[in-house]
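Input structure tokens:
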């Protein structure tokens, strides 16, 4: 199973403020929907609640330390390990946030799909700095600002070039 992070950041790796994404980017929404279709999406409870609905055509997996928290809309697990074990029959699983879930899944992550907005936003949550000794940039496409997007942004794919925790070497 491939564990892939899918994240929207600003140029300082900021991902959110007050449990909300920093900027609505229509191209990111389309990219997200196409990339994750029919795959499990793993997220923290606050991310799940901020989305406000299930993500259709995806298995919604929520990680929470609150043992009393349950959802009829998603499967809940107390740890990253248990959440990923529940997805092991899938070819690929996408980790979609928040910051703590991204950090805790990083040892298992073999691919990072990052959409990086070329701007700076005030934030209180950040994606971990990508270690270029561990991950290599496989592709990058930059798009100029347009009426649909006020900012330039780049779509990047990073691939682990070393063995992830509990897994085989990928890349």
């Amino acid at each position: 199973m491939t564990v892939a992070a899918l994240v929207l950041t600003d140029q300082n790796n900021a991902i959110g403020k007050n449990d909300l994404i920093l900027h609505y980017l229509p191209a990111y929404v389309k990219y997200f929907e196409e990339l994750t279709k029919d795959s499990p999406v793993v997220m923290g409870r606050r991310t799940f609640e901020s989305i406000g609905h299930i993500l259709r055509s995806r298995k919604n997996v929520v990680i929470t330390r609150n043992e009393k928290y349950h959802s009829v809309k998603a499967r809940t697990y107390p740890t990253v390990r248990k959440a990923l074990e529940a997805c092991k029959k899938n070819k690929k699983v996408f980790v979609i946030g928040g910051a703590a879930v991204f950090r805790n899944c990083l040892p298992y992550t073999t691919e990072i799909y990052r959409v990086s907005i070329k701007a700076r936003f005030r934030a209180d949550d950040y994606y971990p700095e990508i270690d270029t000794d561990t991950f290599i940039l496989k592709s990058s496409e930059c798009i100029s600002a347009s009426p649909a997007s006020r900012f330039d942004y780049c779509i990047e794919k990073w691939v682990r070039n070393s063995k992830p925790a509990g897994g085989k070497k990928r890349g």
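The helical segments are 26-36, 45-51, 80-86, 99-105. The CA atoms of residues 46 and 109 lie 21 Å apart.
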